[in-house]
Amino acid sequence: MLTFDVARDWIDRWDRQQEGYLPDREERFTALIDAVEAGIGRPDPLVIDLGCGPGSLSARLLHRLPQATVVAVDTDPLLLSLGRARYGGTTGLRFADLDLRTPGWTAGLGLDRPADVAVSTTALHWLPEHHLRTVYRELAGVLRPGGLFLNGDHLGVDDTTPGIGRLEVAVHQMEERRRFAEGRPEDWRQWWDAIAADPALADANAARGSRTSAANHDGSESAHLSTHVGALREAGFGEIGTLWQRGNDRLLCAIRS
Asked: Distance between CA atoms of 254 and 84, rounded to whole angstroms?
């Protein structure tokens, strides 16, 4: 049985390695949760967290908005195991093992009303464009009119404005160098290699290894801002824009028509 203490320690390590790629990760989390609080207009929103990983965003959101209900969605059994062991006792939080690439995934959310907001951070870039378009169409079907979609990710503009795109990447890289002048934390691959060597996670690792949909989604298939904006417009979202940005790391917001 995966214990609370083991899960807490590994999630703390997860957060540190993620910060190695996202020096302003906590600031982006804060901006996203600010937008939920300011944009929904109720203290008890129903939230869907897409590609939740071990639940880092969901936990922070519920810390700020303890009356919220969050359905945290992922398909990686190891990350879900960590999240359930660490945050399983958190009121208002429920993890859902669903693959966003499988049509009909929204039926597995168990919603009793339309959601007020959907959120995601550093996750949806791994979806190929055709899957991303399908995900956004399904998502629009379970969001209430006026509901929000908030996506924090590296979304580049080099396909439409290459000069600005290069500058955005440079700004992000310069901040990384300043933040980690004395050395970077472990990277993504080092974290997964360390996880694989921990006997406490042997069962979860075996489950992950048998599920290729979990093990093979660490690429950047939909890394352009224009791809997400186009897919959101096609899905029925009206206003779409950037709420927060640092280099090419941005918080994209879309309002359901």
From this structure: 29
**Mind giving me the DSSP string for 35-90?**
HHHHHH-SSS-EEEEET-TTTHHHHHHHHH-TT-EEEEEE--HHHHHHHHHHHTT-
User: Do 230 and 135 contact (CB within 8 A), yes or no?
Assistant: no
Count: domains in the chain: 1
Q: CATH no. for residue 133?
A: 3.40.50.150
Rounded CA separation 257/255 (Å): 6
* Cα→Cα distances 128→66, 108, 134, 218, 237, Å: 34, 22, 10, 12, 20
Of 222, 215, 223, the C-alpha closest to 248 is 223
Residue with tokens 């939740």, as numbered in its chain: 52
- Quote the domain boundaries for residue 222: 4-256
Range 220-238 average pLDDT: 96
pLDDT of residue 216: 58
Name the pLDDT band for 77 (thresholds 50, 70, 90): very high
Whether residue 219 is predicted with pLDDT greater than 70 in this model: the reply is: no
Cβ-Cβ contacts under 8 Å for 102 (sequence gap 6 or more): none
HSE-up (13 A, CA, CB side) for residue 185: 16
Q: If you average pLDDT over every residue of the chain, what do you get?
A: 95
What mean pLDDT is predicted for residues 206-215?
76
Residues 10 and 195 sit within 8 Å (Cβ to Cβ):
yes
What amino acid occupies position 110? Answer: G
